[in-house]
Design goal:
With about 325 residues, the chain is α/β, with parallel strands linked by helices. It has one domain: Alpha-Beta Barrel (TIM Barrel). It has 13 helices and eight strands. The chain has an eight-stranded parallel beta sheet with strand order 1-2-3-4-5-6-7-8. The chain is globular.
Length: about 325
């Protein structure tokens, strides 16, 4: 079985029309809801399912589209309202296609606000709606530079709740208001900052069962690892590679060389298969004739991986991390 742990919802356009109304009115007209019925929400993912079939992906974990999560918008209440409706749509699609989708919730993070304000929505999604994980934006200010990095105790209320709920978080930046980088470039910046902050922190000492997955192959860190190894040696600290392996990493990298490097650096036992399809990688590679986000054959063709290691990357590691995933047929869930 192939489980893709990094996908995003294909929602009807009415969700984003609702979002535009919230931003334009700043919530003056109340919460309201997207002008769309449940049937259209469920059918909106038809093309998405066909793509997963073509790429031979059996199940995908879907969350809100990060760049649209509007975490830097004000007032805070409109962020909560939008994320709640996005999560509700994900829940409906996962319920309609339980063998294809598993739900991962967005958190209603808001610039300058404690992550404690997201806990009620996290509880609702996990306890009431059956979500298996969440997306954690390390920079809800979306480029304002004011939010402490993930190694800071600012984040401890969220970490405590994630451990309590036995729920992993996918570290994934959202929008970016900076004039110096696009939101896609900001993803890589924030993932790199997140890793380096966590490595230098006490987070995994204080929360040894906390499960954090870093998107997009760990940002720049695997490529630049020599620099970070050297600094840890100079400090006489725990080896960088040991600290790095306290986190998990997805394979959302769109060239075979990078996927191979990631697996060699952090180990196949710390990598989870991910494609983010349909998304930015859904472009046809003129050289191979395959879509760049067609990553199953990339993993299959890495010659040094054993069959057991491939099975871990494709499924086994996801089941270790996302303990709320439905068991395979014939298994019982503990």
């Amino acid at each position: 079985m192939v489980i893709d742990i990094h996908g995003h919802v294909s929602a009807p356009l009415e969700l984003y029309a609702y979002q535009a109304q919230l931003i334009a009115s700043r919530g003056f007209h109340g919460k309201g809801k997207p002008a769309v019925d449940e049937e259209k929400i469920v059918t909106a993912c038809g093309a998405h399912i066909e793509i997963l079939k073509r790429l031979r992906i059996d199940m995908q974990l879907i969350s809100p589209r990060p760049f649209a999560m509007m975490h830097s918008q004000q007032p805070e209440k409109i962020v909560h309202w939008f994320i709640e409706h996005a999560n509700d749509m994900i829940a409906l699609q996962a319920k309609a296609y339980p063998d294809v989708f598993a739900p991962v919730c967005g958190l209603p993070q808001c610039a300058g606000v404690s992550p404690a304000n997201t806990l009620a929505e996290l509880e609702r999604c996990v306890r009431d709606l059956g979500f298996v994980g969440c997306v954690l934006n390390p920079d809800p200010g979306e480029g304002d530079g004011l939010t402490p990095p993930l190694g800071d105790e600012f984040w401890y209320p969220l970490y405590e709740k994630l451990v309590e709920l036995d729920t992993p978080a996918l570290i994934h930046s959202a929008g970016c208001r900076s004039q110096r980088e696009s939101y896609s470039g900001h993803f890589i910046t924030e993932e790199s900052i997140a890793i380096l902050s966590l490595v230098e922190s006490r987070v995994f000492d204080d929360f040894p069962t906390l499960q954090l997955i870093v998107s997009h192959g760990g940002g720049s860190v695997p490529y630049q690892i020599g620099r970070w190894r050297a600094q840890r040696i100079q400090k006489g600290a725990e080896p960088f590679d040991v600290s790095l392996r306290k986190m998990w990493f997805d394979t959302v990298l769109y060239n075979p060389e990078s996927v191979d490097l990631l697996l060699r650096i952090v180990g196949p036992d710390r990598c989870l298969f991910g494609t983010e399809t349909p998304g930015i990688g859904s472009a046809l590679d003129p050289e191979s004739g395959r879509f760049l986000d067609d990553l199953r054959p990339v993993v299959e063709e890495i010659p040094w991986l054993t069959d057991a290691q491939r099975a871990d990357v494709f499924e086994g590691n996801a089941r270790k991390v996302f303990t709320r995933l439905a068991p395979r047929q014939g298994e019982t869930q503990t």
